[in-house]
Amino acid sequence: MSGAVDARLAELGLTLPEVVPPLASYQPAVQSGVYVYTAGQLPMVDGKLAVTGKVGAEVTPEEAKDLARTCALNALAAVKSVAGDLDRVARVVKVVGFVASAPDFTGQPGVINGASELLGEVLGEKGVHARSAVGVTVLPLDAPVEVEIQVELTEA
User: Fold this and answer.
1) Is 80 exposed, middle or buried, given 0-12, 13-18 or 19+ CB atoms closer than 10 A?
2) pLDDT by residue (tens digit) across 18-62?
3) Rounded Cα gap, residues 123 and 87, in angstroms
4) For residues 105 and 118, what is the distance between their CA atoms, to the nearest angstrom?
5) Taking Cα atoms as reference points, which of 29, 125, 132 lies closest to residue 75?
6) Would you say the pTM of this structure is higher than 0.85?
7) DSSP alpha helix (H) spans, 12-141
8) Beta-carbon neighbour count of residue 2 at 10 Å?
9) Residues 100-146: pLDDT tens digits?
């Protein structure tokens, strides 16, 4: 059913953004066989980070969870840029989330739930995945969150 994922995005009131241009020497996503691997996606909106800082200090866990949703949406845009159509996603295999954390912040899984929940809302059962949620000292551009995904595609 062509356009089912796009229809679901519209139903959720979401718009797939333009692919975030690379900040360095890499591609936003690459395909190898039936898999697409995205680069780490920052919570960029219209070419800018809306929020910077550490989660548990300048950024609340709730704000960071919303930012993780934005990262996942950017990751889906990167997948679509190489797959051509998000209806080709057979399943999300793995999500890796990085949270720039204040020293005493331990809620990384709750933050990355923002990305996981978005993938489930958009892709249903195909969005269920394995995951890692890691606290780090700093991320590029002082972003609070970064998310990468790996998806399996159906044949074209």
Assistant:
1) buried
2) 999 898 999 999 999 999 999 999 999 999 998 999 999 999 999
3) 9
4) 23
5) 29
6) yes
7) 61-83, 108-123
8) 9
9) 999 999 999 999 999 999 999 999 999 999 999 999 999 999 999 99
